[in-house]
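[audit] Reproducing an earlier prediction to check determinism. Same input, same settings, fresh worker. If the tokens differ from the archived copy the diff job will pick it up downstream; this log only records the rerun itself.
[audit] input (260 residues):
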Amino acid sequence: MTRKQNKLLNILDDYGWDVFSYDMISNEGSLTSEEIWEALRYLTKDGAITRIEKGKYHKTNFYDDNVIACSIVKNSCLAYWSAMNIHGLTEQFPNIIFLQNTKRVGELKLPNSGTRIKFVKVKENKQFGCKSNGHGNHIWRITDIEKTIIDSFDLPIYSGGFPEIIKAFNNAKLYQTKLIKYCKKVNNKSVSRRLGYLTELLEKPNMDDFIKYSQSVVGKNYLLFENGIPKSDEVNARWKINLNIPEDEILEIANSSTQW
């Protein structure tokens, strides 16, 4: 192993960088650009480090996919189905990490674990409600429970579909003040109405203020309870919702998994 390769590995050890980028090494200042690229090339070939994508790497013996995923896009966080699973709101284990961010779309497969990362790009007003897990250089971020629920109803395609998010909502312990605040920030009245309707139907406790808020955004027009399937003849006039999933089926779905 050359001096430059040893120097780069020593930098990683000194700073505790198990996941790192070319820019981090460059800003440290001990190696020139040419020396960094040469060391990275040979260390990758030797298997000491693994290339995530251009300019981004992790030590090959570091296996935390959550940390690796959140390092790829600045200020990103695990969300949707991934967050539902981590919070214990679903029994299903998605084989993909859903990463909410404001910059990037598409997918990336991590080279060692084979885990796929789905980048879900949202507007800046929807990027909030994240909390940090881990410590030191092993920090990764995840949407909190209230934001996870709202995000999942906002984009159910990334959350396992309506049966999964109905069960997750029924399982979740929610704080209505935070839920109201988040619904206002996301500004999706259809989501607020569906959540208000479900809150009332499932008789979730201590949610009177949220029901009042949700009622305040009910307009004149009816919306489908679940988009993408035909409407039915059954409606809920109080919430102006077309119940294209019947209430008895919603209740059966909500109670079809173990309650945490």
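[audit] rerun output stored. Observation attached for the diff report: Residues 67-254 form one domain.
[audit] end
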